[in-house]
Fold:
Amino acid sequence: MSVIVFEYRAVDKAGKVCKGTASAADRDTAYRQVVAMGLTPVSLKAASQGAGRRAARVKTRDIAQFTHQLSVLIEARIPISEGLLGIAEQEENPKLQRVLLDIAARVQAGQSISSAMGEHTGFFSDIYIESVKAAEKTGNLVKVLQLLSEMLERVQEMQRQVKSAMTYPLVVISTLGLATSFLIVFAVPKFARMFASKGIELPFLTRVLMAVGQSVQTYWWVLLPAVLLAVFLARRSLRLATVRSFMDRLLHRIPVIKQILRGLGVARFARVMGLSLSSGIGLIEALEMSGRSSGRAMMAADARRMVDQVRAGGRLSDVLARCEYLPTFAKRMITAGETSGELPKMCDTVARQYERETAMLTKNIGTVIEPVLVVLIAVVVLGVALAIFLPMWDMVRLMS
Structure:
């Protein structure tokens, strides 16, 4: 069913003019919706679609806030469609507002909320939709929405911490790269030509940097498109599973980065698995979704192997023992949860543990990376300085 968002201008019983939106399949249905709200429509027109394309993108924080608000309204026994309309009226992001109005209209037309959300997979992930669908069947929608809201908030917080931790080294490396590029492209060739005109034999390092600088000056119109093409091809290649797996294994060889990535992957795996099981999703489906959502190719590969072994009749505890990516602590806790019948609770404990560990690592990553940055800066500055000053010393020696 195609749903259209209409903008209306109406008058209430007190004679006050008000504006708003209504979602319906056609104009007549939207008109009846406005009348049902106790308003007298003055004008009713389809909302402009261009504004949606210019609207700010919907962030994880926005979805988490909406999920929490919806759980509160459902817990207060407010009908889902009315709750969605109420949240949409207060939503400041026009793009998310239109999505919520569309979902409300679909729910009013008889669709389930999971089915209505399934029409907007760009906003709601497979895990989100499947969890809501399972919660509808088991009748614990409020609990699952609260868990989804908590999970999204934690994901947002972890992403913020990682970005914040990486800002300092990225700024330092970028500044160093720009400064060095300027010296190599503009300064070194001028010094090199001056030394050559004096009959001074240039050292190997100076000749190399001079050739690089002159090449950039002469063939920049070729190099610039080549760099852009390389970036484009690199981004496209990262979509390939084999390339992502290779990069994942490569990053896991770097000591500190390995610990952070592993902590993020394990925390996400345990968080989604606990949420899935709490929603009423089966173990096999929970393992599949947890592996896909972990964000780590190695964890996803282990999850696929676990799914195959569980399908073949293996117990989760036995399957976990052969999992290479999960740490021993996580295996023991999940095994204990299976034995005690509290697997979702243990998965939540594992997620919280590795989220704390990863948060500590990201906070201290600056102190770990700083010595490496100092050495890198020293090497680059020393190389450029030697390329300029070695011939200068020879020139001073010849003049003396």
In short: The chain is about 75% helix and 5% strand. The two ends are 90 Å apart (CA to CA). Residues 258-355 form a domain with the Receptor-associated Protein fold (CATH 1.20.81.30). Residues 49-55 have pLDDT under 50 and may be disordered.
